[in-house]
Amino acid sequence: MAVESRTASTPTSSPSSHRPPTPKKESSTPSTPSKKTTNPSTRISYTYSSLLAKIHPLLLSELNLPAPTEQQSRTFGESIGSWPAFQDTLATLHFLQKYFKLVVLSNTDRAPFAATNAAQLPGVRFDAMLTAQDIGSYKPDERNFEYLLRYVEGE
User: Fold this and answer.
1) CA 128 from centroid of its chain's CA atoms
2) Coil, helix or strand at residue 29
3) pTM score, two decimals?
């Protein structure tokens, strides 16, 4: 799925239950974080797309498939913004956004995630989008989760 991990309190009821959870506080902020988002001491030197392009030949080799051309690897790396969401993702996010703030914690960069959000998740508004590009490291690095916690605690 193109949408990575996100945080939101788990509702006490499911979409099919009779009692909805307590409504969320309305956010007056756009989906871009209001505080400084880049951690210069841990800045990554490559994009997620370039990382995917770099591992593409290794992945194919492990699968005993023919080695790709450089262009094929680049195309694979750049494809992340068009990866489809899982079948239940859109309905679930529409339900959750009625009651909770949605915060994305993603290993992707802002541009591919924005493309995925626009194409695959119409009508979903994230209250914040925290990416590896912003944080300077990739999950499962503990810094990503510490950054997320600092961000949501500051809201």
Assistant:
1) 10
2) coil
3) 0.62
Distance of CA 37 to the CA centre of its chain: 15
Query: How is residue 143 annotated by DSSP?
Result: H
What is the C-alpha separation between 28 and 23, in angstroms, rounded? 15
If one counts every other C-beta atom within 10 angstroms of the C-beta of residue 7, the result is 18
Question: What gap in Å lies between CA 60 and CA 43, rounded to an integer?
Answer: 29
Q: What distances in angstroms separate CA 152 from CA 5, 74, 78, 102, one per listed residue?
A: 15, 35, 30, 10
Which pair of tokens denotes residue 35?
A: 């505080």
Q: Specify whether the CB–CB gap between 126 and 30 falls below 8 A.
A: no
Helix, strand or coil for residue 22?
A: coil
Nearest-angstrom CA–CA distance, 47 and 78: 10
- For the chain, 155 residues long, give each residue's pLDDT as a single digit of tens: 333 434 443 343 334 433 344 444 444 333 334 444 444 445 566 788 888 999 999 999 999 999 999 999 999 998 988 888 899 999 999 999 999 999 999 998 888 888 888 888 999 999 999 999 889 888 999 999 999 999 999 87
Q: Looking at the DSSP assignment, which residues form a beta bridge with residue 45?
A: none
